[in-house]
Amino acid sequence: MLNKLASYFRSGWERNLAILWFGCFITGFGNSMTMPFMPLFIDTLGYFSPWQLNVLSGAAFSITFLAKAIVSPLWGKLADRKGRKLMCLRASGVMTITITLIALTTNVWILILLRGIQGSFSGYINNAQAIVAQESPRSKKGQAMGTLATGQVTGTLLGPLMGGFLADHFGFRAAFYIAGALMFVVFWTTLFFVHENFKPIAATAMRKIKTVFKELQAPRVLFGVFLTTLVVQASASSIQPIVSLFVRQLLHGHGDVASVSGVVAAAPGMATLIAASIMGRIIDRVGAQKILVIGLVTASIVLVPMIFLQNVKQFIFLRFLFGISDAAVIPAYQTLMTLNSPQDAFGRIFSYSQSFQAMGSVVGPMLGSLIASLAGYRSVFVLTLGLEIICLIYVIFAAKYPKKKVDSVN
Questions:
Q1: Distance CA 130, CA 124 (A)
Q2: What's the pLDDT score for residue 276?
Q3: CB neighbour class for 105 (10 Å; exposed up to 12, middle 13-18, buried from 19)
Q4: Using 50, 70 and 90 to split pLDDT, how confident is the model at 407?
């Protein structure tokens, strides 16, 4: 058994996958374990009216994603010059410091500043994706990307549970200390155990990103990947502001609304966790483009009955099915991105993908809240359905006409 384990860790790409899976798991875990009680923690830092608390909590949440969306392409350029492992170390190291300092802060503005810094230096997951995509064999890319995707999903699912337990029993700050310590472990495991076959590129020898996009064989396919990244994240997060309110409406004000809302919120992630690696293997056999289309069609079909659901059990079941569609879509677009990105621009293209994902995390909740306030909770599913259909149409179009240049990506 020990010999088999040792042999496994001597295998380059599989060892990288194992260590980077752990890093993505802890990154998702650390980010999510403090989010459920962030407003409560902010409330301990001063005397705020309900309106002030809502604004400050929203700022603390969104500033991380806004900073990530703006800065990611700059880090991507550096990743292509210096290597993606270095970017993973940068992200995990800074996250260790910022989360630990948040645990020590007594001022809400410092907390928001630290959250902004954390977003500005983030990028562990997208650089881990780039390493795995580059180092894994072509015949195993779907499986590798599907397996890696389960790391962040698992961490995001378990993080709120552990964060809530720590906050209830040891106080809010304990969760930040634990998250910081775990990211410290990620830094060192990445440093010692991840190996990247990378040759540094001089700044003068690096092609401009405009040139890269102009020379792509299938630029529309790649832009379809970016659009899908944004839509998937926006679809997943659009329901966040109203999920507990809609559950309360379905329960007619009775029952354990908080617990049921947690199950509803976790259902897609559980499905993605179960199915993502399986879908990755199917992608390697069938092809990423076909699975991406099937996943988007499935998501669109599932959203139709979600608009008319009448009880919580239906809600949980349909959200679970929606998560299975994500399990197909996520590794499919990651594999497509890998296959359609030139080696010397991997870091920048994966960073653009992260920017689109971050924009989805900002746009989704904003649109969800706005639409729900104007037209009711069910209208959020109509919005999500519209986004999925638009994305599906473009992906099919891009697959049929992949080689014509697209000005919007230049």
A1: 10
A2: 81
A3: middle
A4: very low
d(Cα 327, Cα 347) in Å, to the nearest integer?
24
| pLDDT for residue 345 is more than 50 | yes
CA count, 13 A, side-chain hemisphere, 305: 16
pLDDT at position 204 is 65
Residue 174 neighbours by CB distance under 10 Å = 16
How buried is 285 (Cβ within 10 angstroms: 0-12 exposed, 13-18 middle, 19+ buried)?
exposed
The Cα 410–Cα 393 span in angstroms is: 21
Q: Binning pLDDT at 50, 70 and 90, where does residue 79 land?
A: confident
DSSP of 373-403, one letter per residue?
HHH-TTHHHHHHHHHHHHHHHHHHHHHHS-S
Q: Is the pTM of this model over 0.85?
A: no
Percent of the chain that is helix, strand, coil (3-state, to 5): 85, 0, 15
Q: How far is CA 336 from CA 228, 318, 332, 359, in A?
A: 11, 27, 6, 20
- The Cα 385–Cα 167 span in angstroms is 36
Question: Do residues 362 and 69 touch, judged by C-beta distance below 8 A?
Answer: yes
Question: Nearest Cα to 130, choosing from 69, 187, 184, 87?
Answer: 87
Q: Which domains, from first to last, does the chain contain?
A: 9-195 (1.20.1250.20), 208-405 (1.20.1250.20)
CA gap 114, 97 in Å, rounded: 9
Q: Which residues contact 96 (CB under 8 A, 6 or more apart)?
A: 180, 183, 184, 187
The answer to whether the CB of 69 falls within 8 A of the CB of 210 is no
Region of 48 please: left (phi>0), alpha (psi -120 to 50) or beta.
Answer: beta
- Identify the CA nearest to 345 among candidates 142, 123, 76: 76
Of residues 263 and 360, the one with the higher pLDDT is 360
Between helices 379-400 and 219-237, what is the axis angle to 10°? Answer: 170
Q: How many Å apart are CA 119 and CA 69, to the nearest integer?
A: 8
Where does residue 100 rank: exposed (0-12), middle (13-18), buried (19+ CB within 10 A)? middle
Helix intervals (H) in 83-123: 84-104, 108-120
**Tokens of residue 22, six digits:** 């752990």
Residue 157 CA to residue 407 CA, distance in Å, equals: 38
